[in-house]
Amino acid sequence: MATISDVAKEARVSVATVSRVLNNKESVRKETQQRVYDAIEKLNFQPNLLARNFRRSESRVILIITPNITNPYYAHILTGIGETASSLGYSALIFNTGGSLEKEKEGMEMLKLRRADGAILLASSMESPHLLEYVESHPVVQCSEYDGASGLPRVSIDNHLAAKEVVEYLIDSGHEKIATISSKNTYISTKERLDAYRETMKDHGLKVPRSYIAHGDPDYSFKSGKKAAMKLLSLKERPTAIFCISDTLALGTISAAMEMGIKVPEELTVTGFDDVDDTTMFHPYITTVKQPCYDLGMRAMKLLFDRMMKKEISDKKVILSHQFVIRESSAPYKP
After folding, report:
1. Where are the domains of the chain?
2. 307 and 153 in contact (C-beta within 8 Å)?
3. CB within 8 A of 74, min separation 6: which ones?
4. Tens of pLDDT along 247-300?
5. Are 84 and 127 in contact (CB under 8 A)?
6. Is it true that domain 53-156+293-319 has CATH number 3.40.50.2300?
């Protein structure tokens, strides 16, 4: 197990300097602080937490606020956060809100009560004004979803660009009757994916009938995706392709098509978003956008650690790369 002396040697500083950094003394230069932080992370150094926490009123706990812990999309993000937190000497506490703004605020109150040193929000809606209460006095980072008006650091992908790539692919495959299954929530990703769908269709001179935009429930449940798909597939001018804003909605769509005797992808192309594990559990495997979920969690935790250590953050908007993965659920349009 690494000692404070090992950290000092690795960072090329004195033991006293490491101690000052650990206690957030501002007398240490930024460059020196960075060397100490790098050494701590490299050596997985864990100081005498009990004594230090008592002295500094720290909990050494970070809070993860999530809307639905059963959603498979969050699994790898939570792993990325948890493993990175552990490597930095922190425990992670998950607070499930069920999509309730009141519950989200209740979770954030744990910061004021000093039960957590910082928080990562996995599903900040664009209607979370209460977040402003915590911006100045507590370290908070947004991951995946965010409220741009809050000014909080965030980690995400470019949802607009990713959705545009999917719709461009469908159009290039010969589809013109392209519908979408969105969601009834106030997440930035939902807005950006729907906006990209509409804009891309318009750019190609393709009309979007109001009936071609269906909605699943706020947490993208399989059941709601199936219900929305059945509505779309019952239209007189039924779509030949459906762009779903989540993989779970896409799974519901494929189930609906099978029950209605519509073959995927021969008669209907279906695309999803996120690349959760379920997309390759059953055939047809789903064409989808692969999000770097583990890395989203890891980067969010590192960003939060920097905030808790009061390090200067040069980039508060971290955008990670996505990947469009073509599988069995999509095919060129056949008249």
Report:
1. 4-47, 53-156+293-319, 159-291
2. yes
3. 66, 68, 122, 293
4. 999 999 999 999 999 999 999 999 999 999 999 999 999 999 999 999 999 999
5. no
6. yes
Longest dimension (CA), the chain: 76
pTM of the model: 0.81
Say if CB 271 and CB 250 are below 8 A apart.
yes
- Name the token pair of 159: 């949802």
Q: 71 is written with which tokens?
A: 């959603």
Reading the block at residue 92, the tokens are 């992670």
> Structure tokens of 90?
């922190």
In CATH, what number does 159-291 get? 3.40.50.2300
- Could you please state the CATH topology (level 3) that the domain comprising 4-47 is classified under: 434 Repressor (Amino-terminal Domain) (1.10.260)
Judge whether 256 and 232 are in contact, CB under 8 Å.
no
DSSP-H helix ranges across the chain = 4-11, 15-22, 30-43, 49-56, 73-87, 101-112, 159-172, 188-203, 222-233, 247-259, 293-308
Residues in contact with 205: Cβ distance below 8 Å, sequence separation at least 6, in sequence order: none
Residue 22 forms beta bridges with which residues? none
SS3 at position 130 = helix
